[in-house]
């Protein structure tokens, strides 16, 4: 109650109501000090007797404090009334662990006499500790998210930089296309104008010939008319026939008209066909986000080179932790072929693998870890699945990789990868038993510094809508191995039956 005493008026001893401050520094209720001064002959302070000539001023700070005290007191009273036992009317101070209920002392004696009871504050403390323990994982997650804000900002900045670089490259490529289209347009318009010029010259030449022929005939008739009378009369009929003879009308033919169909027929297709020379199609596009720091990928994403030093444009957020570059698209079903140009490189690896985005890949690169490929080391070759090495007659400068569907002897779907010399079309290696049902991504590993591995473009072709990529194998192709086994079993049974028959005879 000490605080309530401090907030009480010295005159009425009640909580201040509209407190005012005298010049001496003491405070009173406005009504109390006015009543005191009315009954007194002087305007003195009831506490220190000092005279206050000025009018008292409102003590706003004290008034706010008193109002806050009243609100808190009212709230405390409501809480005490609310937390009283509804049965016994006593204050709730206990907690029953058996029934998980709050109790008063009378409840403990009667309804919960044999239950496990603990003080209310202790129960609250224990459960708050459990709640804090339950919140720790969420707090750690929140802390991680807050700390990752800087990483997220770095990723956003990196993405923005990539957008700017990619936009620049797109504009450059479209500028090349626009230049090509502009030259193509000028060339075709020039061809059209040249045809018109040739047609006009041909028409003018023919017209001049007709004019010259007719002029010569008129001149001839006029000369014959100057002959002497006897000669004129003797030749009159021939001269008349000559005068009556006219040139035939000029016939209209396709040779004299512009060949519009030649200039407009399949115009866009012809332009596209010519555009293939500057628009090569690459079956594999490398993913720059899988590039190690000391690898350099070309701007068109078709070549990769192993460099001596770390690149300035290194991959800030690698999606692949192995020293390789993956293709940007994975292959599921069907047959897929691509070629890699090595030139004079003597150390490289290539093949297909499962994608493990954002996770470090366990070494070595083996089928157990999702890798199927071929490695060259000097003049020797080996599969990623075995250390056994072999050589081939000619070391290819361009290797063709072929991924296709395959079936085992029981007809179960699997996949196989084959390697051949693209220049001589000679097959030299094959990997079977590759698991199916999951996308496989091409990968390349350049190991000779400054010697790039480059994806070879293929001729573009028109693909009809809905063309099926997957090759549907016949029953004989799918179950070829199983059929062979069954045939041998049947032959063996026939031989055994033949021997038994001969034995009985």
TrEMBL record:
The chain crosses the membrane at residues 481-499. Signal peptide: none annotated. The keyword Transmembrane applies. One of its GO terms (molecular function) is zinc ion binding. Residues 264-462 form the B30.2/SPRY domain. Pfam families: zf-B_box, zf-RING_UBOX. One of its GO terms (biological process) is protein ubiquitination. Residues 80-120 form the B box-type domain. PROSITE patterns: B302_SPRY, ZF_BBOX, ZF_RING_1, ZF_RING_2. Keywords: Coiled coil, Membrane, Metal-binding, Transmembrane, Transmembrane helix, Zinc, Zinc-finger. Residues 9-49 form the RING-type domain. Residues 163-202 form a coiled coil. This is Tripartite motif-containing protein 35-like. The lineage of its organism: Eukaryota, Metazoa, Chordata, Craniata, Vertebrata. The gene is LOC107575671.
